[in-house]
């Protein structure tokens, strides 16, 4: 069986084309690896990348790409709006096919150790590699962002990295590495209003920290556009850490009901990047109240692609 | 790129275990072929099989299996309620991965010719292999079923098979072979009533022939059970020939609205066998009004499994 993992490393340069090209280069034309996509964001000064590939090939490619980012990005000059702590901000690893989470955990461990060994960039482990429960998510690690962490790490022992001494690398900052069961879903809900205050209010209803869903940490209300009509709107931008457990239709329906309280309609859902078919099939399963002819609906045996992937394996 | 096709041959014995086992045997333990499933139905006296595999392997396996069926099933003794014309009733071929419909058409052509050559069983070509427009679907070919066709073929030249003389095989009847773009979806809609007359009425609203959807030929109203509650119910059993063009949510919503006219709720949708993920993702896309961040929702690039299948290819 061919093993595949998914990874979405994030680099802290969304502006300089020549830098971005060099960071992306190791992901191109590499047998056993597919660069699904990358979307540099100049406002965020951030480069998210999506990769699918065989574990060993992925490890080599990520390490080559990180070497470039550490060489070319100076965090003292970088000015992103997105939370981040280093030139390579996060490297998260997910099982995609015939790989256990334990194998992903080991791979993340190796990548973290190599990063510190080769570049002396301190490493924070997250997800299944977290040394402490508060580091299973990114929020506690990233508190205060690069600038805040740079200062805090010198005096607060609880902010110290998991690999490396208690100080950040002078230009590269620090890097977060870890394996997770499930790729986050990046889901925006589009409201038929330009009032961002309403979007922010609604965002607070679904965010775990303020009483919402445990699988939703990151949510923000932002001005945006409805793609289908070009209308100016406000969106709620949502990061769902386990969309099989907290499904998109449940979030969507809850926001629809709450938006009505403000006299606002929900216009659309927006999905950023790739998503596992199962997440969307789950929405169809709910909406059509699916059953099988002889029992409950079974995603594993009733979806053709699952059989195709098994045969190909 | 590894080529894969899908096929769902139907054999006319749903009762005799020893016969069913011999028909299924050629599909087991064959590298490059996966027997997705088979569900003998004693009432219908019919054995539907679902297969996924490489074209050449599939062709050999189907021909071996047909040889057994022609040897073991006598249509003069078979008594099924399901429309059928032979021991091997239909062999339909669909593209599953990296195969064109033209390649499927050629494969169906070869299978049909081999069947006539080896067994002198007359063949009717359907789908993309149809010699006449009225044979693109099964209804005209199967008119009168085995018994009706056996007599009609002797006197009505318009009922003659495409391969073979104008008479059926004395025990094996005739076989329908053809390539189709899209696997039918078998979709039942479960009504909260035991009144089958209402189900039949609603079935007529969606059937193409009586003013409904062009992609729905077969629909029936039947007594059944709701799997989730065990309640006795009536179902509308629907065969959708192109569920990407006539999506399940549109059928479901129309039936919901029409059922309300009779004071009846829709309890569930039931899916029989496998379905392409895209069919259900399309329902989610509609329900969540999906867009991508930078444009329209794109099934091809935004579903992880598509990238995985490309890498594996």
Report on this model:
Chains A, B: One of its GO terms (cellular component) is cytoplasm. Chains A, B: It is found in: Cytoplasm. Chains A, B: Residues 3-181 form the Formiminotransferase N-terminal subdomain domain. Chains A, B: GO terms for molecular function: folic acid binding; glutamate formimidoyltransferase activity. Two copies of one chain form a homodimer. Chain A has three domains: 4-179, 2-Layer Sandwich (Formiminotransferase-cyclodeaminase, Chain B, domain 1); 185-275, 2-Layer Sandwich (Alpha-Beta Plaits); 280-313, no CATH class. Chain A contains ten helices and 13 strands. Chain A has helices spanning 17-24, 55-72, 101-119, 139-142, 145-155, 196-206, 248-260, 277-287, 299-302, 304-312; strands at 4-7, 10-11, 33-38, 47-53, 88-97, 123-127, 175-179, 185-191, 216-225, 232-240, 266-272, 290-292, 295-296. In chain A, a hairpin with a 2-residue loop joins strand 12 and strand 13. Chain A is globular and about 55 Å long. Chain A starts with a strand and ends with a helix. Strand 12 of chain A pairs parallel with strand 11 (266-272) of chain B.
């Amino acid at each position: 069986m061919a093993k595949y993992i998914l990874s979405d490393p994030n680099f802290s340069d969304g502006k300089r084309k020549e830098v971005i090209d060099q960071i992306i280069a190791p992901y191109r034309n590499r047998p056993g690896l597919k660069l699904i996509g990358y979307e540099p964001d100049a406002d965020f000064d951030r480069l998210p990348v999506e990769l699918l590939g065989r574990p060993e090939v992925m490890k080599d490619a990520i390490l080559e790409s990180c070497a470039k980012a550490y060489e070319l990005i100076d965090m003292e000059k970088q000015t992103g709006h997105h939370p981040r702590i280093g030139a390579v901000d996060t490297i998260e690893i997910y099982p995609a096919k015939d790989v256990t989470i334990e194998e992903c955990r080991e791979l993340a461990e190796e990548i973290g150790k190599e990063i510190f060994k080769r570049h002396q960039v301190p490493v924070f482990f997250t997800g299944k590699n977290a040394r402490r429960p508060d580091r299973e998510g990114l929020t506690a690690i990233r508190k205060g962002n690069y600038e805040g962490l740079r200062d805090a790490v010198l005096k607060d022992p609880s902010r110290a990295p998991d690999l490396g001494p208690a100080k950040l690398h002078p230009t590269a900052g620090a890097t977060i590495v870890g394996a997770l069961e499930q790729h986050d879903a990046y889901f925006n809900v589009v409201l038929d209003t330009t009032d961002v205050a309403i979007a922010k209010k609604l965002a607070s209803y679904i965010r775990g920290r303020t009483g919402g869903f445990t699988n939703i940490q990151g949510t923000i209300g932002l001005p945006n556009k409805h793609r289908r009509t070009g209308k100016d709107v406000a969106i709620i931008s949502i990061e769902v850490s386990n969309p099989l457990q907290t499904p998109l239709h449940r979030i969507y329906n809850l926001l629809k009901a709450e938006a009505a309280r403000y006299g606002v309609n929900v216009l659309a859902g927006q999905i950023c990047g790739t998503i596992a078919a199962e997440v969307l099939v789950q929405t169809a399963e709910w909406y059509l109240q699916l059953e099988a002819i002889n029992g409950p609906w079974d995603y594993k045996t009733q979806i053709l692609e699952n059989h195709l992937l098994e045969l190909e394996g």
